[in-house]
């Protein structure tokens, strides 16, 4: 028998024997550090993003088969892998050999942009196919719900993988293959006909290692001891009970999905962990006449499968609890979590927001517990089981053995409810389980149980409500009594943890109302014959259901041109990204003498630093040094305006500000030591919100733009409206966090591999910090795992401390921020507040508009001036308004400085104008579409800063999207639907956008390029455009292909480097392709001119011949190119300028549906028409449009940045509590059309920028939701002019849909900031 402290596992078919593994090590660490398999990524370390997904296989002796399941390698402990096989993305296919069909399909369907999330998505799909070779669409969505992507908008991923399902095209009979997409256009992701090469063949998969099947690894007792933790894996019940007696405080861990997060993010330490995963009694499932007994270690996935089998084999009435548990599991974490989470873990952790515990309590579930000394006992879960926060009525030495889920009788009704911030894979705001048993006449209540999560530190039952309802008839009087009693059973004090007090209270009675109507309807169905029964309003009963995602993408493609330009080519590195071979900074090979850096950052928003004590940190294992401001060789001042510090010295001005850096021999040792650095503070007054700054008159500065005579305009206007509206911030949530690797060299040189959008900024900032000339610093960036502006200026936050550490120790220094660190240390999109006054006439025509904009800039200027300028120049959106004054104030506060984010202030400005139009529409009862249309810019109109609009295509986009979306017909259908449904409302909104293209700072509008032609005809291209998923590398290759008339296969781009192209501008402002493309073209034209004599001499020759002849003729085959955008300027003193080279235009129509009782919503359909000129690559541009829309939708409708009201501490610092859109959040129908025949003479090859312009079209979703809310308010007789701040969270939607239920609490509800709020939106 193997030694109990050894571990055996297979990785991609290779056997690994590990002696004395550390129980704290994760599978991800082992794969990346020991196996050098860097395809599996670290995205969050809490199982919330899926970037680390791998497939685990094991032999299950009970079932007699091999089980395959996806897991989060960031949470799975290495020691839990004994006797198992792990398959990573590298193990299924490679560009060096052959891609797996999953990898190939994703690459060809344009489903990978930045590529950081791609390996995890590939492995989720691969695992699904291993279990179900032809899955359903529902299977596909379920498999991917634990994966996130910030770039693509998800549609191409779903469409690409749909080929493997039993419905290959989501459009059904409307498939482009059946109907055709129209003349001179075609679908962007035209599916290939199935061939032997791209059809999944399960017989070709690698075999399960025979040793793992033949040898009884699952029967082996394991004991592992590390530096701080012991791990036991018993295989017999008596061993488990003995261990629990010996270590009563030990945590029992199956999937590590709870404990892993507690250890990593809450700093908890569990010296002894016991894994009961291999105890036979805890894995048994026993189906009985009254219900099912599940062993405590049974996974949630297996429980789901067993309950589904029971539903299919038993009468409907017997399985009502089973059905609700399965429904709840759909929204319970991701598939990777459910595959390893156990029934016991979910129950015994006693989370007050557990999704299953309210169902268990309401259902009267029984559990069996056992101890070594006292034997077994049964407990019925009721209001006495959960004693206090995380404490239950189970003794420390007892072990949960099994759980009994009962059947229901004919007279029993059961329902589970959950409302979360995001529909899928999110923790609950409030959840509930409710069971009622009626008497045989179905008139009176015999028993009723109600349990709620999210309303107390424990899962709470409602004894007063239950007692009051027993014996009563199921009628309106019972409902009123229930509402009254629930308010008393579920009190929630102002300032309670979690905030949203009135919303949570409202949800409790809304859930009961839904249950009341559901039971009433079911009873009526049982008792009525034919169609004579009552016809209830089902809108409060039915759930918002989502169908398969579908869509059409229409564009022009230049098929006559032989070059690669103007064609829908896959991204340059798509196959590498899908195979896990694409390298990011942290994937670079480890140096033997490398050290790791962990940052020490402020825990205060504003305070004096009295002392920094690193003595305890220096005692930690592996620590080499702790660096602070005194260790900076050069200047400690940094930032674009010199108003930031590398290390805070005397004072901290934001929670998350960097104070120091700990250098150690490993990430684990560095991070543990960093937490032991003690900083003593003296608190100072802190300003957190915009309102705080206004009150304190704390500003970085302001700007103003004026057009016409605003005051005179107000005197002429027939109506005046004024008000305030705010829009929140947004975290970038790029899947790859900030990363750096610094490598020292001689002559004082240093090579810095940085995940930055601005290599030159890092170069010059590092040179200043190190006090060396800039020519000693070589900054290199191959690709980013997403950027969106977040890596433009703030990459120095990580790069500079690492460079200082590298100089101090003269060894390579590496650091990749954990997700929570990244979200705490760096800033995001600027929150904004607008105070406005608008004058307009009765036909909706705006006469004058005066707006005061306030942005929360944070503790330093960073890029806030540019953001403010963009907001000022974009507030008109697409509208010509005669008289306008807009002033923008940059609030100086004590939060980490906010920074560039896709749109750069433009979307915030546009949002306020659209709000104003919405308010005018409500005031005048005129359709908002008509108001928008009457104000649209026309050719030659001038903006409020007097720039004429040339080639104005906004009306073309507008009219086409209205036609393609069938807007008028659907608007009538929405009105009809709303008239028939009280508690479900729909809204539809058409939205235009105009976006100016250029950097606001004129000198940045320049680029250079270097093109080498090697004598064998191959071309190496260098430029300043950072590849971060937007396809700039691919587009530049296409430009070279057309300019030199050679195939794309002959052209390559390696990286962006300060040694090949100097003085680069940041890749930002949507100018990457415009600036670099023009520079590349300039270089190619020089080369083409040099080659012309050789082409003329051999007109029938080949490219290789001409190049070879030029080489032997001693003609230079290298050329630099340069471009500077002409005629740009802006004078704010006269409100005059031409800040933009040209404008991009677009329009969208979005239809939504909301649940008025919960605030939930879903996007039904979105149609977009976008002007991108003559697209260099239509597939890439469509991907940018879809990705921008979904990211903007997240900003306006889902993502809410939260800080602790009392301290300014960031609360939203990971996917657990910050929710970006997932697969199930995108429009069910997502159609994109690129406007035809609109060449743009202002950019390379008639193209247009596309990265940022489409983002604001997502406002069509926000204002469609607002329209639906208006419909609900109109039916309730409420004012249609109301405060509706963004993001429109479920709380804001629900509380705006005023009804008799919300009115119980609405009197104290403030839509801006609830009283005594637990959290604030900065």
Quick synopsis:
This protein is of the alpha+beta class and 1322 residues long. 29% of the residues lie in helices and 23% in strands. Helix 3 (118-131) packs across helix 4 (137-144) and helix 31 (1032-1044) runs parallel beside helix 32 (1072-1097).
Describe the structure.
The protein has 1322 residues and is of the alpha+beta class. It is 29% helix and 23% strand. The protein is built from 37 helices and 52 strands. The two termini are 60 Å apart.
Blueprint of the fold:
Elements lengths: L5 E6 L2 E6 L7 H8 L18 E8 L4 E8 L11 E4 L13 H8 L9 H14 L5 H8 L10 H7 L14 H4 L6 E2 L22 H5 L7 E4 L4 E4 L3 H10 L4 E2 L6 H7 L6 E3 L10 E3 L3 E5 L4 H14 L6 H11 L4 H4 L4 H6 L8 H7 L2 E6 L3 E6 L5 E3 L2 E2 L6 E8 L5 E9 L7 E11 L6 E9 L6 E2 L1 H7 L6 H14 L11 H27 L25 E3 L18 H6 L15 E7 L5 E7 L1 H4 L4 E5 L9 E2 L5 E2 L5 E2 L5 E7 L2 H8 L3 E6 L6 H7 L2 E9 L2 H7 L2 E9 L11 E6 L5 E5 L4 H12 L6 E5 L14 H14 L3 E4 L2 H7 L6 E9 L5 E13 L5 H11 L8 E10 L13 H19 L3 H8 L18 H11 L2 H14 L3 E14 L8 E8 L5 E5 L8 H13 L6 E3 L2 E2 L14 H26 L5 H10 L5 E7 L4 E3 L4 E3 ...
Parallel strand pairs: 1-5, 8-10, 9-10, 22-51, 23-36, 34-35, 38-39, 42-43, 49-51
Antiparallel strand pairs: 1-2, 3-4, 3-5, 6-22, 7-8, 11-12, 12-17, 13-14, 13-17, 15-16, 18-19, 19-20, 20-21, 23-29, 24-28, 24-30, 25-29, 26-27, 31-39, 32-37, 33-34, 33-36, 35-44, 37-38, 40-48, 41-42, 41-45, 46-47, 48-49, 50-52
Helix pairs in contact: 2-5, 3-4, 10-11, 15-16, 16-17, 17-36, 23-24, 26-27, 31-32, 32-33
